Amino acid sequence: MNIGLIVYSYTGNTLSVAERLKDRLAQANHNVTLISIKAKDENPNQTKIELTVIPDPLAYDRIILASPVRGFQVSPIMKAYLQQWPILADKPVGCFVTHAFPFPAMGGKTAIKMMTDLVQAKQAKVVVTGIVNGGKRESDIVRLLDHLSDEASWK
To answer: Quick one: CA dihedral 118, 122, 126, 130, positive or negative?
Structure first.
């Protein structure tokens, strides 16, 4: 399976989870490309976003998206990226977000719903989602890695 692991990470926390997921998927004999979305100005308070690295979602059989939570929403840079997607006609997508708060209701749930809505607006099929909370970070990461690397989750 050719998997695009497309990440926006401001502090490196989300990227560290994505790197662990990449290793797990590669061990399962998947061809995984990890690409970080980049913007001209990485300031999280930026309102006008100009992306400089824009991964092509059509290049992959399956896509996994990862973003930090910013103000109870998906990161504005990930949002700008997803708004530029072409129509993807049922391409399978997994999504996860990371945040510092200890409970998913403190931003994670809202952000993952927003990400899911943005993906579905492009007619892709969100198959699996996850949230890494600050309070139980390591156990959430282990559960997320298990979930996203389990082929049964993608059916």
So the answer is: negative
